[in-house]
C-alpha cells in the first residue's frame, strides 16, 4: 500500500469519527479556508480510500459492530408488531409479561411504564428504521444523473414521441 503522510493518516482518523470531510481536514491540521476542497480531494485519492477501508475493517473487528448487526437491529425495529407486546380482546388490553416476549422482539421497545391510565409501551420509530434499511439497500434514489446528449436544439420535442 502506498505511503500516507501523517496529516493524511490524521485526516482518516478524524473522518471516521463523524464522516465529515471538511471538519476532518480542519482537525487534521489543514487550512480551514481550503478544508472543504482538501477534504473532498483526499476522499478521492485511492491510497486514502484503501487505508480508510482497512481502518474501517479493523474497527469492525475490534468493536464487533458489523453492517449485518446494524441491519438486524434496524429490522427488529422496522418489522416490530404491536401484537408481540399486547393483545386487545373484548375491549380490554392485555399486556404480555416481558419474560414471555422473545429478547429479539424487546429490542424494538424504547420504554414500558405505568401511567395513571394503565401501562404505556413505546416502540422505536418504525418508519425511520425502514427508511434507513431502504437507503442501505438502494431502494431510494435522492438524485438522478443524466449523461449524454438527447439532441435538444436540432429537433422539436414532438420528434421524440
Mean pLDDT: 87
Q: Biggest sheet, in brief?
A: 2 strands, antiparallel
What topology, given as strand order, has the largest sheet? Answer: 1-2
Amino-to-carboxy terminus distance = 53 Å
Q: What best-fitting shape do the alpha-carbon axes yield?
A: elongated
Number of domains: 2
Radius of gyration: 25 Å
Helix content: 40-55%
- Assembly status: single chain
Strand content: 5-15%
Number of helices: 7
- Total E-strand runs: 4
Low-pLDDT parts are: none
Structural class: alpha+beta
- H/E element order: HHHHHEEHEEH
What can you tell me about this protein's structure?
There is one protein chain. The longest helix has 18 residues, at 46-63. Helix 1 (6-18) packs across helix 2 (21-27), helix 2 packs across helix 3 (35-44) and helix 5 (67-78) packs antiparallel against helix 7 (126-136). The N and C termini lie far apart (53 Å). The strands form 2 sheets. A two-stranded antiparallel ribbon has the order 1-2. The chain has 7 helices and 4 strands, in the order αααααββαββα. 47% of the residues lie in helices and 13% in strands. With 161 residues, the chain is α+β, with helices and mostly antiparallel strands.
Amino acid at each position: 500500500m502506498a505511503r500516507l503522510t501523517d496529516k493524511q493518516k490524521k485526516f482518516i482518523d478524524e473522518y471516521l469519527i463523524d464522516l465529515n470531510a471538511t471538519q476532518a481536514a480542519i482537525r487534521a491540521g489543514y487550512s480551514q479556508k481550503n478544508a472543504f476542497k482538501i477534504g473532498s480531494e483526499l476522499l478521492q485519492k485511492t491510497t486514502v480510500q484503501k487505508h480508510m477501508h482497512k481502518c474501517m475493517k479493523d474497527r469492525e473487528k475490534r468493536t464487533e459492530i458489523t453492517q449485518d448487526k446494524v441491519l438486524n437491529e434496524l429490522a427488529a425495529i422496522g418489522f416490530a408488531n404491536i401484537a408481540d407486546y399486547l393483545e386487545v380482546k373484548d375491549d380490554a388490553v392485555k399486556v404480555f409479561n416481558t419474560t414471555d416476549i422473545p429478547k429479539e422482539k424487546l429490542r424494538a421497545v424504547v420504554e414500558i411504564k405505568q401511567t395513571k391510565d394503565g401501562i404505556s409501551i413505546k416502540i422505536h420509530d418504525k418508519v425511520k428504521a425502514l427508511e434507513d434499511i431502504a437507503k442501505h439497500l438502494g431502494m431510494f434514489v435522492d438524485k438522478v444523473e443524466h449523461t449524454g446528449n438527447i439532441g435538444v436544439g436540432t429537433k422539436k420535442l414532438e420528434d421524440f414521441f
